[in-house]
Amino acid sequence: MNRSSHEILGSARTIAVVGASRDPSKAGGSVPEGLQKRGFRIIPINPYADTLFGERVYRSLLEVPEQIDLVDVFRPAADAPEIARQAVAVGARALWLQEDIRSAEARRIAESAGMEFVEDECTAVVASLYRLRTSAA
User: Fold this and answer.
1) Could you give phi then psi for residue 97, rounded to 5 degrees?
2) Are strands 70-73 and 94-97 parallel, antiparallel or unpaired?
3) What is the rounded CA–CA span in Å between residue 72 and residue 96?
4) Residue 47: pLDDT above 60?
5) Partner residues linked to 96 by β-bridges
6) Rounded CA gap, 43 and 124, in Å?
7) CB 120: neighbour CB atoms within 10 A?
8) Does residue 9 form part of some domain?
9) Domain of 67: which CATH number?
10) Of 6, 65, 96, 98, which sits most exposed with the smallest number of CB within 10 A?
11) What are the φ/ψ torsions at residue 45 (nearest 5 degrees)?
């Protein structure tokens, strides 16, 4: 059974954000912050920052020492297959490519590993539309 995007996001607690940004005017900065305010645990992935959203930043998914429920991608589609491979390697449960990001190869990699997959949708929009909050919020 394929779950909807809001069901996938609603069941997530820990979200690794690949392409998390220091710039709050960019989606990679504002969307994770909004998800964090809704109670989601955000793990920022960015090669150029040390702390974002009050959390330690990791250089890649492979460095994250805890279970990841959802990998939220704010990188170009060309980067998505490698991110998908890393998501599989760390045992993430779902891969989400943000609005305007599509990758048939990333989908194939994720789904072949049994991960749920969403593309071309915004986690902030889905969280707002369905009023999603975690129990930690």
Assistant:
1) -95, 125
2) parallel
3) 5
4) yes
5) 72, 118
6) 16
7) 14
8) yes
9) 3.40.50.720
10) 65
11) -120, 115
